[in-house]
Amino acid sequence: MNSDNDLQIAGDILEVPHLLQPPREHPVTVAEFAGLARAVAADRAQWAHLVRYDATTRWYHRLRTGPGYEVWLLSWVPGQGSGLHDHGRSSGVLTVLAGSLTERTERGTRALAAGAQRVFAPGYVHEVVNDSLEPAVSLHIYYPGLTAMPMHTPGQREAQGEPHGEPRAEPCPAVV
């Protein structure tokens, strides 16, 4: 039998609708959350008119919610940063929409240009900063929705042989 004809012999999966997964209304996998972030990023009409820049504090706006998740829009003027923190029990996707940001972790520093994405699990400790001379905008998706953002003090736990710094409580939504 010729393998070029296997598709013909087996048939076309699109002709057998009962074999296809139904499209989901809301994301449930990491890949689907990253895809949602890319889709929102591509639709500037959905978010660009909402962006505000505040020189005194980071600006943020909850863009939408779904079953168990939240989508946040943040702006960063030059020099603004999040401080070293984690996201409690939430996993997340960070997507840079405009400008550039710098992410710092215990493993090093990463430059994030427009379009860059970072996916993280609960307990992931990082700091995000706008080190550039231009404002930046980012999109953050949290699953489950963000309920805590413990702040960490650099170096405090490293001295005790632990990797991340000492958490201290901060109420939400100081999102990143």
Question: What keywords describe this structure?
Answer:
176 residues; mainly beta; five-stranded antiparallel sheet; 2 helices; 10 strands; 10% helix; globular; disordered C terminus
- Main sheet summary: 5 strands, antiparallel
Q: In angstroms, what is the radius of gyration?
A: 20 Å
Morphology call: globular
Average the pLDDT over all residues and give the rounded result. Answer: 84
Helix content: 10-25%
- Helix count, DSSP H or I runs of 4 or more residues: 2
The total of beta strands comes to 10
Strand order of the largest sheet: 1-2-8-3-6
Order of helix and strand elements from N to C terminus: HHEEEEEEEEEE
Estimate what percentage of residues fall within beta strands: 25-35%
Q: Any low-confidence stretches, pLDDT <50, length ≥5?
A: 159-175
Helix-and-strand structural type: mainly beta
Q: Termini distance? A: 56 Å
Write the layout of secondary structure elements.
Elements: H1 6-10, H2 30-42, E1 59-66, E2 69-76, E3 91-98, E4 100-105, E5 108-113, E6 117-120, E7 127-129, E8 136-143, E9 151-153, E10 166-168
Antiparallel strand pairs: 1-2, 2-8, 3-6, 3-8, 4-5, 4-7, 9-10
Question: TL;DR of this structure?
Answer:
Helix content is 10%, strand content 32%. It has 2 helices and 10 strands; from the N terminus they run ααββββββββββ.
What does this structure look like?
There is one protein chain. This protein has 176 residues and is mainly beta. 10% of the residues lie in helices and 32% in strands. It is built from 2 helices and 10 strands. The protein has helices at 6-10, 30-42, and strands spanning 59-66, 69-76, 91-98, 100-105, 108-113, 117-120, 127-129, 136-143, 151-153, 166-168. The strands form 3 sheets. A 5-stranded antiparallel beta sheet has the order 1-2-8-3-6, with helices on one face. A 3-stranded antiparallel beta sheet has the order 5-4-7, with no helix packed on it. A hairpin with a 2-residue loop joins strand 1 and strand 2. The longest helix is centred in the first third of the chain and has 13 residues, at 30-42. The chain is globular and about 55 Å long. The termini are far apart. Mean pLDDT is 84; it is low at 159-175.
